Amino acid sequence: MAAPLPRPHRFDVYVALAGLLGGVLVWAFGLYSNGTGLLPGPWALVPLAVMAGLELLRRSRPRAAVLAGTLALVTDQFTRGSVVTVLMYTDLMYAAALYGSPATARRLPVTTGLVTVATTIGFLAWWRTPEALLVGFLTGIVSFGPAVTGVVVRNHRDAADTERLRAEQTALLAEKDRVQAVTAERARMARELHDMVANHLSAIAIHSTAALSLDDPRTTRDALAVIRENSVDGLAEMRRLIGILRHDDGGGREPAAAPTLDGIGALVAGARANGLDAVLEAAYEDGLPAPVGLAAYRIVQESLTNALKHADEGRVTVGLAQHDGVLTVWVTSPYGDRDGPRAPGSGAGLIGMRERAALLRGTFEAGPEESPGSSCGTVWTVRATLPLGQGGTR
After folding, report:
1. Rounded to the nearest 5°, which phi and psi values hold at 26?
2. What does the alpha-carbon distance between residue 337 and residue 376 come to, in Å, rounded to a whole number?
3. Cβ–Cβ under 8 Å, residues 386 and 292
4. Looking at the DSSP assignment, which residues form a beta bridge with residue 330?
5. Are 109 and 147 a contacting pair, CB within 8 Å?
6. What is the C-alpha to C-alpha distance for residues 280 and 299, in angstroms, rounded to an integer?
7. Residues 6+ away with beta carbon under 8 Å from 288
């Protein structure tokens, strides 16, 4: 079953009505394109009406319209003729090249060009007069010219559509990159905020709990001293983070320096002040890439924070070793149930450490291990390998 014809475009309806009314008006004034004709004057209205009806199909059925229009144009040559019929045929030829299939758009200029050449040669051979060239010229104007014009306009439209699509795709990619950049920046700031604050607040929570639980003035005084020290250090870290944010926003201030491996010793000493039996074993060269140093510092900091909150009584070992272009960081702490005050954990610490290692294309693992040399037999080990050649992120 054949598909029904779509509703004609409003512009095509206007073109058909204008052509029909214009052709009737020209015929009423007795204006014809042919001096003589085999059929009398009123017969010129037949191809005119057919051509006007085909204008309704110039978008929906352009190929069929131009084929039927060619037959109507040939029929018009046997009447007195109408210039309006010829003009509507040129519009059908133009529409066929513009709205037809790509194959039709490619073949139409070639076909009309060959028809123009064949018509010129045929009339030259028949008439053997220069007037035959005029017939070929008019044939080219009616067929070849509109076809070429339609192809040119079509190519320009296709190029414009391609550029518009490319612009839309570029905008989508730019938006995707922007969202990814914002997400990555938020994740980075979340890691920084967690690593900076968690250590100090955990110590504050544990020592404040101890001060409230034990009715001992000396213990309370020592706990308050630790609380004050961690409060001051946490405030300094927060100011550093705010300085980074203001610098990124163009506030004009230079951000405070980020922690480096040179601060590992002070970090371990602060852990001992908070009550951990922490020792440092370090063997690495100076001048390591800043991203590697910051990642190692934050991993040790978060590991010490977790040890302060969860580790059993015993020694906590912090180790750093450089070999074969890789910095290895490990922290071991006694694994087991612990008596005494605890600070609740968020679970984001391990995720943050794993992300820091992954951003440098390193590895990270954390979990309990058997340790014969440990008093408790089992230790919780955090181990990260950071390639020194990856100074930046992915």
Report:
1. -65, -40
2. 11
3. yes
4. 319, 383
5. yes
6. 14
7. 261, 322, 327, 388
The answer, as to whether pTM is greater than 0.70, is no
DSSP state at residue 140: I
Q: E strands within the chain?
A: 277-283, 315-323, 326-334, 363-370, 378-387
Q: Which two tokens stand for residue 288?
A: 């390591």
- Residue 382 DSSP SS3: strand
**How confident is the prediction along the chain (394 residues), in pLDDT tens digits per residue?**
556 667 889 999 999 999 999 999 999 988 888 766 788 878 999 999 999 999 999 999 999 999 999 999 999 988 988 999 999 999 999 999 999 999 999 999 999 999 999 999 998 998 888 888 998 999 999 999 999 999 999 999 999 999 999 999 988 888 888 888 888 777 777 777 766 666 667 677 766 776 776 677 776 777 777 777 777 777 777 777 777 666 655 554 545 556 788 888 888 888 888 778 889 988 888 788 888 988 898 899 888 888 887 788 888 999 999 988 899 999 999 887 655 545 555 567 788 888 889 988 999 999 888 876 656 678 899 999 999 875 444 3
131: amino acid identity, one letter = E
**Neighbour-count burial of 358, counting CB atoms closer than 10 A to its CB (0-12 exposed, 13-18 middle, 19+ buried):** middle
Burial of residue 58, with CB atoms counted within 10 A of its CB: 0-12 exposed, 13-18 middle, 19 or more buried: buried
Radius of gyration of the chain (CA): 43
Q: How many CB atoms lie within 10 A of CB 391?
A: 12
- Which domains are seen in the chain, by residue range? 10-170 (no CATH), 260-394 (3.30.565.10)
Q: How far is CA 14 from CA 17, 68, 88, 283, in A?
A: 5, 20, 12, 88
Which residue type, as a one-letter code, is found at position 256?
Answer: A
